[in-house]
Design brief:
The chain is an alpha+beta fold. Helix content is 54%, strand content 7%.
Length: 474
């Protein structure tokens, strides 16, 4: 038996503008600029607001209306003036590329390969191996696997032995150590490229026979195994510590300089003791809807006789106008959300922004800012992600201002303050007898921070500080 029931449901639907705004919130400044340029290229209805041009006279406006018609739009999907548009900012000196270091390293290696006396086959094999080297300068794939790729992608048969010969040539290139398959091989390559002093030869001897003991800093075992004195070991270790464990990141060129660029999203200044926050408008144009298209749609919509092609074109233009409005509204909403969130962070961390003293950073989590702004935690998270603020003390990622709190003898303090104490203790420790986590716990307890040893270990690991045994020096 069939029954009909009425049910009431409360559903929350997210509008297209809200979806677009959430996506734009996540973008840092340079990516936002690229996103706007893409929208300008894809939507001819959207254009930049040129504030430097004077308004058109009535005569010019009338002339434009006479010359530009719906038929012109129907003849070409995109008007000619759009295909030649220059979306770049007037200030070209602020245009930065975001090419990664791996591209620069690959080009550097390919240039050196070109100077080798190799036949076409060996040169092709060399290029393929270089393409498999990562941004750190390592070849992390086995040669048999590379041989399989060569056969599959290029139809070339090559043995692992043949590839090994080409790899040995690449391992002589700059930067020293590039093309290594392991850290041990990387360090040994660099030592063989140095002047062969006694210290360098001893270092090579130690790495070749006692790499595992060296990596774990088991120095007494190395002395016993190789039958050397402590001074010999100390001098050899000194040579090893000069080497670069990631040779790819050491190639200084224009690509690395550009890749490290950070453009702040916010500018914070204090005037007469009061904070003044502004959004960085770097290369971000003001946007508007092209009036010509809107007027044409209005004019043609009132005509009684329209062909099917006219109607389809008008509907298409209407969709583009609506899309342009959504995009402009999303940009405005993004700006408002960013300013609201950053103002809340400033209000919460006012003492830090005034003094620049890390001890004045209050414990703060995403929910604190969400409560202050009446936003969802996920929205605050999108704002904080990959955003930077410039203030009197430098440029900081917004994540810098967030940290959990712990109880001390004087009240709640930020975990950042505790991490700074740990870091300072480790910097001042006796390197021949480094502080253990238990000793760090006792030091913090005496300073009024009763923290468990496991918590100390967690903070130390987050700061990429190794355990005491691995910090020992001879």
């Amino acid at each position: 038996m069939l029954k009909q029931n009425l049910q009431q449901k409360l559903l929350q639907k997210i509008s297209p503008v809200q979806i677009q705004t959430m996506k734009l919130l996540e973008l840092p400044l340079i990516q936002l600029e690229q996103r706007i340029k893409k929208e300008l290229e894809e939507n001819p209805i959207l254009e930049e607001e040129d504030t430097n041009l004077e308004e058109q006279t009535d005569e010019t406006a009338d002339s434009t209306e006479e010359e530009f018609t719906l038929e012109d739009y129907m003849d070409e999907d995109i008007p000619n003036y759009k295909t030649s548009m220059n979306n770049n900012s007037k200030d070209e000196s602020k245009e930065y590329s975001t090419i990664s270091n791996s591209v620069g390293l690959q080009q550097l290696l390919e240039e050196q390969l070109a100077f080798q006396y190799l036949d076409n086959r060996k040169h092709t094999l060399g290029l393929f191996i270089i393409g498999s080297i990562d941004s750190d300068g390592y070849l992390r794939r086995d040669l048999p696997a590379i041989a399989d790729d060569l056969a599959f992608k290029m139809g070339m048969e090559a043995t692992a032995k043949e590839l090994e010969e080409i790899l040995k040539i690449i391992q002589t290139f700059d930067p020293p150590g590039v093309g290594a398959r392991t850290l041990k091989e990387c360090l040994l390559i660099q030592l063989r490229n140095k002047e062969q002093t006694k210290e360098v030869k001893d270092a090579e001897f130690i790495l070749a026979d006692c790499f595992e003991e060296f990596s774990k800093k088991h120095y007494p075992k190395i002395i016993l195994k190789l039958n050397i004195d402590e001074d010999t070991l100390k001098n050899a270790v000194h040579e090893i510590l000069k080497l670069n464990p990631k040779p790819g990141t050491g190639s200084e060129n224009i690509y690395t300089e550009q890749a490290q660029l950070i453009i702040p999203d916010f500018i914070l200044e204090f005037k007469n003791g009061e904070p003044e926050l502004s959004l960085n408008s770097y290369n971000i144009p003001e946007l508007r809807i092209n009036r010509d298209y809107s007027e044409i749609v209005d004019n043609y919509s009132h005509k009684s006789s329209l062909t099917q092609e006219d109607r389809e074109t008008i509907n298409f233009v209407k969709q583009k106008i609506e899309s342009a409005r959504w995009f402009i509204d999303s940009i405005k909403q993004r700006q408002q959300t960013l300013l609201s969130t950053m103002n809340a962070i400033i209000a919460f961390q006012t003492e830090y922004f005034k003094t620049g003293d890390d001890s004045n950073l209050r414990p703060m989590i995403l929910k604190d800012i969400a409560d202050m702004t009446d936003m969802d935690v996920s929205t605050v998270s999108r704002v904080v992600n990959s955003k930077y603020v410039q203030c009197d003390w430098g440029i900081f990622a917004l994540k810098f201002f967030f940290s959990e709190g712990i109880q001390s003898d004087t009240g709640e303090v930020s975990t950042r303050e505790v991490k700074n104490i740990i870091l300072k203790c480790i910097e001042k420790e006796d390197k021949q007898s480094p502080l253990t986590d238990e000793e760090l716990r006792d030091i913090l307890k005496n300073k009024g921070y009763p923290i468990a040893r496991r918590t100390i270990a967690k903070y130390r690991e987050k700061m990429n500080i190794p355990v005491a045994r691995l910090r020992r020096e001879i």
